[in-house]
Amino acid sequence: MADNHIASLLEQMTLNEKIGQLVQLATPFLKGASDGGQITGPMKNMGIDEESIKDTGSVLGASGAEEIMNIQNTHLAENRLGIPLLFMSDIIHGYKTIFPVPLAIGCSWDMELAEKSAEIAANEAAVSGVHVTFSPMVDLSRDPRWGRVMESTGEDPYLNSEIARAYVRGFQGEDVTRDLGRLAACVKHFAAYGAPEGGRDYNTVDMSERQLREMYLPAYKAALDEGCEMVMTSFNILNGVPATGNKPLMRDLLRDEWGFDGVLISDWGAVKELIPHGVAEDEKEAAQKAITAGVDIEMMTGCYTSHLQGLIEEGAIDEETVDEAVLRILQLKQKLGLFDNPHRGADPALEEQVVLCAEHRSAARELAAKSSVLLKNDRVLPLNPNQKVSLIGPFARDADILGPWSWLGAEEDTVTLEDGLRQYVNPDRLTIAPGCSVESGTEEDMQAAVHAAEEADVIILGLGERSYMSGEAGCRADIRLPDAQLKLIERVKSLGKSVVAVLFNGRPLDLHGVLDEADAVLEAWYPGTEGGSAVADLLFGAVNPSGRLAMSFPYTVGQVPVYYNHFNTGRPKDAPDAQERFVSQYLDIPNEPMLPFGFGLSYTTYEYSNLTLSSDTMTAWDSLHVSVNVTNTGEAAGEEVVQLYIRDVAGEIVRPVNELKDFQKIVLEPGETKTIAFTITEDQLRYHHANLDYTSDPGRFQVSIGPNSQNITTRTFTLTD
Ligand code: BGC
Predict the structure, then answer these.
(1) Are 637 and 670 in contact (CB under 8 A)?
(2) Which of 223, 293, 296, 392 has a beta carbon 3.0–4.6 Å from 250's, enabling a disulfide?
(3) Annotated catalytic, 616?
């Protein structure tokens, strides 16, 4: 269908039909749907009647080719102009083959596999009838109390941006119109949802525009530069105005400055939430503010349905504003080919073959292994299959390792830690006893665990958080493991055996009581469908750990937010001439996090040497070449993430002590040395100045390379005019 058809369709539409396109309803509201499908949020008092359902433009949370085809057929039979529905769902880290949570994928630093995971998620969802995924979520986050850090890819704008791009490429492919196995992507939550005060979900966000542009906006922009079709608003206020009614953010910045002309959707119920936020007296004012700000689709509340017509009649908004929004939605439907092929990729037969196929499972296993981060290893790992193993802890055989946002992932399809270990250990060498549940335990269970571990050579402890302890509205003020698990560690430790802790959780934890007690600690995050296999591959050395933290682990929660790319202060603690007391420090804990951004161990060791710059000066017109030799000095082949950081020593505006500007993930055989080369160009030295101009300052810069943000070697160069 050509553009003029869309325009003529718009002309034929009544105002009610137009408004219907701007409404998104959850599956159970739609005729032809079997019950179920809704995922979150309040679904009452929507003011939606039978008539308005016929005009609805899109559906949230439907899945399954047959179900979706059914809903679409029923809808097309009832919709006067035959405008197909758009089916949108949260396909966040997999459809039914669940990959590790995004924070874990961030720790893989592997853009090819990140892209592959999104491609597989898209393939499975597309044959199941889905058109749009509410992903990638690219909210930069520095506060592990916030439950949704597991959905983010951490604290760094550059790494976040690279992964945002990889996800968009994976979901959409090169041509989402032609490739029926892909989905349109929707980047979220615009903007700065990851910075709620106190790490409490939906809470206030207040920050300078420079900070916003510097740290928080780049990943959304990167997703859009990669061609992401849609944007979702965030729940939070941003500098006093809720994002969902924030005209400067949505019209001026997103649409005018960035040129985004795709569909902007509100988050679940966020239009109506303008009322409790305190910027709208009632639903009518909420509708007015949201549509004026440029929100095209209202998700799951009825402010647009009930009030847009009245607002137009009163002249409070122009019908053109509504037309504009409708046009964008129709254009997306057209781009996805729905007017010609309303079922698009939906195919029940193909669905059977594709979903959870062996190839997808094997990609999930590979990415889960690459996303796990080895945090400690006192010569315990890798294990030898001849050792007697005791598997203890609440996650010993628990399948709750898919993580939040895996609504279609089934625990019965999940490889647990026990299943994974059984692939390596003979049954007569394995004893299993959970010892406690995630949040509580009895003395009897503890004793059973201690007893089970008595004969073992090594104890593997499966520990962590239940998936409901993170994710949306899953915030915690105390980010240690629950007491029962900390006690369990102490008890099994007293047996004097080697203890390996494997962590299944959604946030950087305060690891006191774990890192100090266990001989080895593997952060497996929520590793997904193939989690148990991937962890076993790592524990037994079939795969050498290569994950690196995408978010710092705080020393204690009192340090939060603690992140590597902070400012120096006027009284840095580590200055050569620092006083003992009057410096920026805590009296009771270190300034540094427990584990820094970029950190992760391996079964081999790497040595960095010969950091060389091609020149000690550069201009805006040329570039600087940086190289470093990296040698595998151990006995196992491994993958190392070589990280390049830059610091602008004296800017017009204070600059972070370090900023990740590039990285390479390389493979090294034992004894092998590779020379790793990077190019620095002037655009990498730019930042937002006092007037928000994005330029660089001539002067001195430090370039540092190393295996993580703390362990780096530095050289200096000067940018000249
Ligand atoms: C979440 C979004 C999600 C939406 C639809 C909201 O509660 O914040 O991330 O896409 O629900 O399920």
Answers:
(1) yes
(2) 293
(3) no
Which listed residue (55, 90, 267, 519) is catalytic?
267
Selection from 186, 174, 262 nearest residue 220 by Cα: 186
665 in helix, strand or coil? Answer: strand
Structure pTM? 0.97
pLDDT at 44: 47
Q: Which atom of ligand 1 lies nearest, measured to the CA of 137? A: 9
Q: pLDDT value at position 5?
A: 86
Return d(Cα 29, Cα 43) in angstroms, integer.
Answer: 10
DSSP, res 61 = S
* Residues with Cβ within 8 Å of residue 347, at least 6 apart in sequence: 65, 127
Strand-pair partners of 677: 627
DSSP state of 513: T
Query: How does pLDDT run across 38-73, given as a tens digit for each residue?
Result: 434 444 467 677 778 899 999 999 999 999 999 999
pLDDT of residue 45: 62
CA 147 to centroid of ligand 1, rounded, Å: 13
Spans in the chain with pLDDT lower than 50: 36-44
- Domain regions of the chain by residue span: 356-539, 604-719
Q: 299: CA distance to ligand 1 center in Å?
A: 9
Q: What is the CA 124 to chain-centroid distance, rounded?
A: 19
For 189-247, where are the alpha helices, taking DSSP H only? Answer: 209-211, 218-225, 247
Q: Residue of the nearest CA to atom 10 in ligand 1?
A: 134
Ligand 1: centre distance to CA 318 (Å)? 29
| 631, containing H or E segment | strand 624-632
Closest CA to 122 of 438, 365, 390, 354: 354
pLDDT value, residue 2: 58
**Distance from the CA of 269 to the center of ligand 1, in angstroms?**
9
Question: What's the 134 CA to ligand 1 centre distance in angstroms?
Answer: 8
C-alpha count within 13 angstroms, C-beta hemisphere, residue 705: 28
Q: Confirm or reject CATH 3.40.50.1700 for domain 356-539, answering yes or no.
A: yes
Q: Whose CA is nearest to atom 11 of ligand 1?
A: 268
- How high is the pLDDT of residue 42? 41
Q: Which helix (H) or strand (E) holds 238?
A: strand 237-238
**Exposure b/e, 300-339, CB count within 10 A at least 16 = b:** bbbbbbbbbbebbeeebbeeebbbebbbbbbbbbbebbbb
Among residues 493, 506, 511, 505, the alpha carbon closest in space to that of 556 is found at 511
Here the tokens at position 224 are 């859009």
Angle at 393 between CA 552 and CA 143, to 5 degrees: 20
Q: Work out which ligand 1 atom sits closest to the CA atom of 151.
A: 9
Ligand 1: which of 236, 268, 472 to mutate, most ligand atoms within 8 Å of CB? 268
Which two tokens mark 118? 């999104």
Nearest to 335 by CA among 1, 673, 716, 705: 1
Q: Tell me the CA end-to-end span of the chain in Å, nearest whole number.
A: 53
CA dihedral 28, 34, 37, 42 (to 10 degrees): 30
The predicted pLDDT at position 36 comes to 42
Continuous H helices in 423-477 = 443-453
> For residue 276, how many other CB atoms are within 10 A of its CB?
9
| Residues lining ligand 1, Cβ inside 6 A | 39-41, 60, 90, 134, 188, 267-268, 472
- List, for residues 358-398, the tens digit of each pLDDT value: 999 999 999 999 999 999 999 999 999 999 999 999 999 99
Q: Give a three-class secondary structure readout of 138-177.
A: CCCCCCCCCHHHHHCCCCCHHHHHHHHHHHHHHHHCCCCC
Domain 604-719, architecture per CATH = Sandwich (2.60)
